[in-house]
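Submission sheet (multi-component)
Chains listed below:
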Amino acid sequence: MSYVIPFEAGEYVARLRKVKERMEGAGIDLLLCTDPANINYLTGLDALSFYVPQVLLVHKDEDAPFWLGRLMDTSALKITTRLPAENLLPYPETMLHQQHVHPFQALCEHIQSRGWGNQTIGVEMDVDYYTARCHQTILAGLPNAKIVDNRRLVNWVRLAKSPAELRYMREAGKLTTVAMHEAIDNLLAGKKSYEVAADILRTSVMGIDGLYGDSPAAFPFVMVGENAHACHLYWTDREMPKNEMVVLELAGVRKRYHSPLARTVLLGRPSEEQRRLADVIIEGVDRALEAAKPGATCGEVENIWQNVLRRNNLSKESRVGYPVGIAYPPDWGEKTANLQDGDKTVLEAGMCFHFQSGLWLERQGIALSETFAVTESGGERLAHVPHRLYSRN
Amino acid sequence: MSYVIPFEAGEYVARLRKVKERMEGAGIDLLLCTDPANINYLTGLDALSFYVPQVLLVHKDEDAPFWLGRLMDTSALKITTRLPAENLLPYPETMLHQQHVHPFQALCEHIQSRGWGNQTIGVEMDVDYYTARCHQTILAGLPNAKIVDNRRLVNWVRLAKSPAELRYMREAGKLTTVAMHEAIDNLLAGKKSYEVAADILRTSVMGIDGLYGDSPAAFPFVMVGENAHACHLYWTDREMPKNEMVVLELAGVRKRYHSPLARTVLLGRPSEEQRRLADVIIEGVDRALEAAKPGATCGEVENIWQNVLRRNNLSKESRVGYPVGIAYPPDWGEKTANLQDGDKTVLEAGMCFHFQSGLWLERQGIALSETFAVTESGGERLAHVPHRLYSRN
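Outcome: structure written.
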């Protein structure tokens, strides 16, 4: 059995068409993608080829995109994508990590040679892997082009998932479910955070029901006590303190689609205050997900959650949710619409969000999140881990 | 037991002094670091705080660096670094992922308010996480500053490891050793690539001898058959083909220090040709490591390897090695000196390189690498996995 590209050819054609429609609306002739998730979305490419400069060129008049990248990685394109061989533009090894030359000079030469050097080119100004030097090289090499920020154009197309994508999102949710259940059991059994993380990693790759897992864009978080307040720390071999909260956050991943989830385990018996806090979060999520139907706005969904908090004299300053789907390191957010006060993005069926319903208070953090897909009957939860505070009683 | 910062305060002071010496040499008043490995090196910061804009400010006249980052991540700084609280400069949540405002505007305001707005500022032009928009924001916000590329100034300071750092490099090598042995056994026992990867992940975090492992900057590679030729693909559930080569590449990680290693397992009996290829690689590594002493240049070490290949009518186009140490996603290379023809960097004791002695031929790949530290008696191997081609006979 050789490599299986995760979607039919027609799915990629449809994605490309949507991107070109947006390009036309934005007056962009040539789109340059450096975000590996966007490149995967448009071609299927799935390899660690983004740690060196690479770029996907989508031109309004071309049937298929072009890929420019490191010579060594051309084979990965031949295996994981359907791009025609003549659309693969390798640059030589000698251009890597040099002070006097940059691979994007080869990109500029290609653009000039195709006669696109005086067109409008949309770049990803605020994407990791589109470094200041990439941009500088393009400005110098394409003096007659109009270079504009494409404003995460492809990310916006990715927001609403197709039925084929939703299948992988649900499968990812299955992996999340099995890894999270094991992690909760491990914590209650007294394991340390690095041991819990080690099992999460193994289990979310081993998967379940014949579904293996891909590598997540970020490593699992197992945040303990005071560290639960610092919500992006890594695991340690610290002794687990009694009566402290432990926040778990992890994502199962299928064909690069992420379904993240957070749960909190109290290493003791919950106080009345802690129970109440959990109840408020659970109610806030329930109310918000009921409203997460096509036609509602992101801001409206957030306000429903925030109103439940406010009624209980609580608040969460940061956004409560962000879109998820395909992701590569360093994180699994899609970076478009936010479940945040004032966000006017209108929900459509198939959009998927991580509803990060966590509260980080003065002395402790508690997070009980859900990843959901927007459906006509509200937010469909993609993982199935009982939505409650876990504890030792 | 609370969080333990991995080095004494004096170690960080010494690092900062070396960086300031180089700044003076380069005429840089203020250095801006966005590479999370550089920030870790100078402060100890160890958190996933780099998926949103953050920057470390090293000013020639200031005792301690300043950190500017997301409000939510300030706690991670308080836990994992010794930076004075007044040197932590959080920007508000509302600046994140906005089209009209960027967190680096807060950076520019801080620089202006300190009176540094007309000084020479060295930025990391070609570092992931220093996006085109970061740079654009700085150019607009600091019109009177002289903005220059710092040319990976901190990376160059990191090249030669201190005795305290070498301890972690050797510990990382121990984790590599145990994970690689298990992976080889798993392959010979018939496990699929995702199963092999799942065990590597778990074992390299569980560690050995009371040493747990950190998360690697890149996930392990288990590259099979034709895919072994595409050297940056991820694992799958593909059936393992008979008589094919499988290339394993993974890194044990201690306190963020990486010791990568590659080994090749043949799922059958080796042909004469394959044996010969392995022998050439092994001889090339042996000869090169004997010569990897202080005073030799990177290019000379590469030439010794290349001469062994050439004598056997082989060659490797890309560099044969790169420096390793602290790393965060997406990869574990330090991106300074290369073991490459013509590289005039002079080796010093304590420099560590991944000697990636792999050959990717027309139909198959074979890699038998070593990570070594430069010592007076040559390259000291940091992992201890017999340096040979593994096979089923």
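Remark: Chain A touches chain B through 80 residues (CB under 8 Å).
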